[in-house]
Specification:
This protein is α+β, with helices and mostly antiparallel strands. The protein contains two helices and ten strands, in the order βαββββββαβββ. Helix content is about 15%, strand content about 40%. The two termini are about 25 Å apart.
Length: about 140
């Protein structure tokens, strides 16, 4: 069975800044695009950004352990080597990246995580699980 890729469509304020961020900063691939929308290939997942002008989301936060996290966010799960390389590359670019955090340490679902804000204000999370078999495993 073919692995299912994820698709997400989101509004964006500035399409050029958004394409630049995802392709040059995060290393994603640009797919099909027009002057009104663009498909981004983020590790095999399709995100379509649609030019919309100003928009707003009220970001409410929640606590997970010692960390305060944004309720509204999306992201991808990466192999630890790819995760580490991306994290290091983003730090070198002097971008505002959250410090790496380990969630559920020594428990089911243990993973490293960091967040970065894109030009539209979206929080993008990158995770790497200690054991991929625990991504959806309940206690």
């Amino acid at each position: 069975m073919k692995k299912a890729e994820f698709h997400l469509a989101l509004p964006c304020e500035n399409l050029e800044k958004t394409k630049d961020f995802y392709t040059f900063r995060l290393g994603a691939k640009l797919g099909r695009y027009t002057d009104q929308w663009a498909d981004i290939n983020l590790y095999g997942n399709q995100i379509t950004f649609t030019k919309s002008g100003d928009f707003s989301f009220d970001f409410k936060n929640y606590r997970l352990g010692e960390q305060i996290l944004p309720s509204f966010h999306f992201g991808v799960i990466l192999d630890i080597e790819i995760w580490g390389k991306l994290y290091s590359n983003l730090l070198v670019m002097d971008l505002e990246v959250t410090t790496e955090v380990t969630f559920f340490e020594n428990k089911i679902g243990e993973h490293l995580s960091f967040f970065i804000k894109d030009p539209n204000g979206y929080m993008v999370e990158f995770k790497s699980f200690k054991d991929d078999r625990e991504i959806f495993k309940a206690e």
